[in-house]
Amino acid sequence: MTNKTNLISSLNNTLKEYISNEKNYTHEEKERYIKNEVSLIFDARKILFSKIGLKALDDFNLIEVLNLNRPSQIYTAVIKSRDGYYYFKKNDSDEVEFLSIDLKELKKINSMLSCMIEEMDKKSNKLITEKTSTFDFDVYITKVISTKSIDTYFPNNVCDSKSDNN
Q: What is the pLDDT along the chain (166 residues), one digit of tens a residue?
């Protein structure tokens, strides 16, 4: 396995484990969610990480949105690495948009994600919650320091999702 494959596998296992430990759903609901919705995240991650150099993926913040109610952007992600910011969007027709951008440009494209990625740098604990997601779609924040140090959470709603430009 390559380092990138190991990283994706570790990210996927961390997300599955996080969802499996969720207290508000039955085992069957969690398994169904992982098999159906989360598999969309796993597929999108393969495409996303194929577009980014490995050097940028050794220490990064990742915010992912899964929104089945918006066919134009079922999966959206922002990565902040030492190389900069990456914005990725995938629709239900498997069309993708991938940009290497700066924070100012990200704010124009998606103000909620830019706010959350900034909050992860300032006070990441402000975003972390033990509760289920408070959004009308699924949002996950992930802090990656190495393949052995990955933390995934549902975020607190500290950034206004209504101001999102998409």
A: 478 888 899 999 999 998 888 877 889 988 998 998 899 999 999 999 999 886 767 789 999 999 888 888 889 999 999 889 999 999 988 899 999 999 999 999 999 899 888 888 775 555 555 555 444 568 888 888 876 788 887 776 667 654 444 4
Cβ count within 10 A of residue 7:
21
| pTM of the entire predicted model | 0.84
Name the residue with tokens 């069309």.
Answer: 95
SS3 label, residue 125 = helix
Query: Identity (one letter) of the amino acid at 165?
Result: N
Answer whether 8's CB lies under 8 Å from 1's CB: no
